[in-house]
């Protein structure tokens, strides 16, 4: 099993086979538009632009499970990200990352990065680094700025 064996609907509702990202290093992030960490969209986009042309991708998964900080629908989320942060990396439809309705990709990511306090995602902007083969390498806390992950990404590229 690896992270690229799943499917997910993009922000426009089109089912995407994550196998298309095989051969690339990916940073998978659960996002929210009304969170104290929302400005990380700027760092994510800067990282995405900085590594353009490299085998690298960022996948954003909006989630409303933490204090309802992603209340909008897909169109609201897409517009917010484009207008406020110029986001060009792929966004997916809003999902749950914890609980019985958690998206299967996040169940897998959590299982692969269990910590002392279990495997649940603690908050918005938790980041998962996945290598070219789909192996989950590391989980980063919401407080970690995406630009601080660049060195780890470059080691995998």
From TrEMBL:
The active site is at residue 35. CDD domains: GSH_Peroxidase. This is Glutathione peroxidase. Belongs to the glutathione peroxidase family. Keywords: Oxidoreductase, Peroxidase. It comes from Proteiniclasticum sediminis. InterPro entries: Glutathione_peroxidase (IPR000889), GPX_CS (IPR029760), Thioredoxin-like_sf (IPR036249), Thioredoxin_domain (IPR013766). PROSITE patterns: GLUTATHIONE_PEROXID_2, GLUTATHIONE_PEROXID_3, THIOREDOXIN_2. GO terms for molecular function: peroxidase activity.
């Amino acid at each position: 099993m690896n992270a690229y064996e799943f499917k997910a609907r993009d922000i426009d509702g089109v089912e995407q086979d994550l196998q298309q990202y095989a051969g690339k290093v990916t940073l998978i992030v659960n996002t929210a538009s009304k969170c104290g960490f929302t400005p990380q969209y700027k760092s994510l986009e800067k990282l995405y632009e900085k590594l353009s042309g490299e085998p690298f991708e960022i996948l954003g998964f909006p989630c409303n499970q933490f204090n309802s900080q992603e209340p909008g629908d897909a169109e609201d989320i897409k517009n917010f990200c484009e207008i406020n942060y110029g986001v060009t990396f792929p966004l997916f439809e809003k999902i749950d990352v914890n609980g019985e309705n958690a998206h299967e990709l996040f169940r897998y990511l959590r299982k692969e990065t269990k910590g002392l306090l279990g495997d649940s995602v603690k908050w918005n902007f938790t980041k998962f680094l996945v290598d070219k083969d789909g192996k989950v390498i590391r989980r980063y806390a919401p407080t970690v700025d995406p630009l601080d992950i660049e060195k780890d990404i470059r080691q995998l590229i």
